[in-house]
Every structure is written in C-alpha cells, then in structure tokens.
Amino acid sequence: MLLLLITCLVAACAFEFVNGFHDTANAVATVIYTNALRPWVAVVWSGFWNFIGVLTGGIAVAMGIVYLLPVESLVDQNVYHSIAMVGALIVAAIIWNLGTWYYGLPSSSSHALIGSILGVGIAFSLLPDSNSSAVNWSKALETGASLLISPIFGFSLTIIMMFLLKRFVRTKSIFREPHKRKPPPIWIRLILIATCTLVSYFHGSNDGQKGVGLIMLILIGIVPTHFALNQKLNPLDMRESLNNVELVMGKLNAGTMSQADRQLLTDIRTQTNTLDQIFAGKTDVKQLPQATRFEIRKAILLIHNKSKKLVSSEKVPLSTADRKVFDSSIAQMRTFTDYAPGKCP
Fold first, then answer.
1. Whole-Å CA distances, 250 to 16, 82, 242, 253
2. Comparison of pLDDT for 178 and 282, the residue scoring more
C-alpha cells in the first residue's frame, strides 16, 4: 500500500511538472517574444510566482476539484477503487497534455484534468457494487461555466483594451513587430513584466491548486484514516454544530413532506445519529479511534449533500433564522473535511 501511495504521489507530481511546461509557457510568451526579459530569467521569475500562488491561493479550487466526483465515490472505503480512479485520471490527463504539447495545440491542463475526473466518475458509477450517480453534475456545470465564460471574458476585455490603446496611445512603434534584440520602451516593458507576474501568480493559485486537489484525492482515497479529517482540529469541537443541525431538523414535520424529502430527512438523521454514537462519552480526542475519522468524514459529507437538497426544496418550511443557523453549522462542520495539509482555507 505504501508503494502504491508513493507511485500515485509521484504521478501527481509528474502531472504538475507537465502542467508547468504545458500551461506556464503562456505566461512567459509575451516577455520573451518582445525581449522584455531573457528566456531563463522569465522562466525562473514565472516559476517563483507560480509557487507563491500555490502557497497563498487558498484551497477553494482544490476542493472544487475534489468534489467534482460524487459524494458516494469520496466515501467509498475500498482503497483499490480509489487507486484505480486516481491512477486512471492522472495517466489520462498526462497523456492528453503531452499529446497537445507535442503537436503545439493550445489546450489547457485544466480541461484535461477536469475531463479525466468526470471520466472516472462515470466509470465509478458502472462498477457492479456502485449505486452512485456518475458525476457531481451541479459542481461540474459550475466548473464548466467558468471554463466557458473565462475565455469569452478575456477575449472581450482584450478587444476593449486594444481599442483604447489604439485610440489614445500615439507611439505607433508599440503596435509593430518587436525588434529581435532590442527591448520595448520602458513603460511597455514594465507592463509586460507585471502581466507576466500576475498570470504566473494566478496560474499557481488556480491550476496549482488543482494539483493540491489531486493530491488530496490520493491521500483521502489511499490513507483515509490519516487524512479523512483535518489533523489540526479536534473532531469533538463539532458537537455544538451537530446539535444545531439536529435541532433544526427536529423542527421539520415529515408528515407534510413529499416522499423524496422524507427520505432525505431520514438519511440526515441516520448520519447525525452515527456522529452522536461516535462522540458519545468522549471527552478527549485521544478517545476517538483512528478508524472512526473516516466514518466522521463520511457522515459530514452525506449530511451536507442530503441537507443541501432538502433545504432547497420549496416544500420544506424553515424560517430565515433556522436556515442561517443550519447553514453556519454545516459550514463549520465542513472545515474538518475541506482542508489541505500545510495550507489554510
């Protein structure tokens, strides 16, 4: 198992390496083409700001990658299923990246990784003992919309900026092909370096975080007892939030609900009861068996998944105050599952 874990982590690092020379070239293309920076200086500078972006970019994108998969696959404790999923998506993404790089096709590593994750999600649903949906389609549609809108936004903004430059900048030399050895005017050079820096930083905080999400998939899937929950937090501290969730759910009258909503409420209560049983009589985190950490993670994810569907139903009567308490309690419980080792949310 240790060998498989190391192999998967090395493969994830290989994907990040391929992602680096595949996508980051976009950040340095302009400063190299215009002679604003020497090639080796541009590459080192871009790599540095990519790294800063990964360190300071938070984990929202990383968790977005993790939760593209359906909750059922994330709480599947069959380690070999996890290894197969992670291995398949990494190899597929690397092959696509290398192929598009070799033929000079401007394809994004984000599309490769997200497409691979969706593929393994669909494959997971076809397993004989799997009853899950293929993909977390709500998250997939949200991600797909961002991938579609961002180039359109960039294209439109570039047209507007180019029009303004042509209209107000009188120096016509900046619109001509750059000299092969001569750098551009100092103010243009500074702008090019600044844009290279920003593109590199945001590439790190975005695509670099996808690598963090990929590594979290590996750690949670192969060694769930160690990485199922944030080691820096005490699971017993979520009991107040759990009590709030139970109080709000207790106010709902199952008799007035549809059959589907009643089933969701039953599922939520089953998972809250599971957590109650795990926490019963515990006063110190050392009293929690290590193996229960995955059960806690599973219960939290299922409570969030089921409650999100239940609370969004128009036929479920909840006051504004109860919804606020419920949402804040679920968000506090998710801090135990949404994390990356060595990073802060």
1. 47, 36, 12, 8
2. 282
* 255: Cα separation from own chain's centroid: 38
The Cα–Cα gap between 5 and 80 comes to 11
Classify the phi-psi angles of 59: left when phi > 0, otherwise alpha if psi is within -120 to 50, otherwise beta.
alpha
SS3 289: coil
d(CA 2, CA 222): 9
- DSSP code of 184? P
Q: Which amino acid is at 5?
A: L
CA distances from 215 to 90, 170, 211 (A): 10, 50, 6
Q: Which residue has the tokens 């200086």?
A: 41
Residue 181 CA to residue 177 CA, distance in Å, equals 12
102 versus 221: the higher-pLDDT residue is: 102
- CA nearest 9: which of 78, 87, 116? 87
Asked if 4 and 83 touch (Cβ cutoff 8 Å), the reply is yes
Alpha carbons 97 and 83: distance in angstroms, whole number: 21
Q: What burial class does residue 127 get, using C-beta atoms within 10 Å of its C-beta: 0-12 exposed, 13-18 middle, 19+ buried?
A: middle
Residue 62 banded pLDDT, cuts 50, 70, 90: confident
Please give the Cα distance from 27 to 31 (Å, whole number).
8
Give the list of residues 6+ apart from residue 262 with CB closer than 8 angstroms, or none: 254
How far is 9 from 86, CA to CA, in rounded Å?
Answer: 10
Backbone phi and psi for residue 234, each to the nearest 5 degrees, phi listed first: -95, 115
- pTM higher than 0.70: yes
**Pair 275, 242: CB distance under 8 Å:** yes
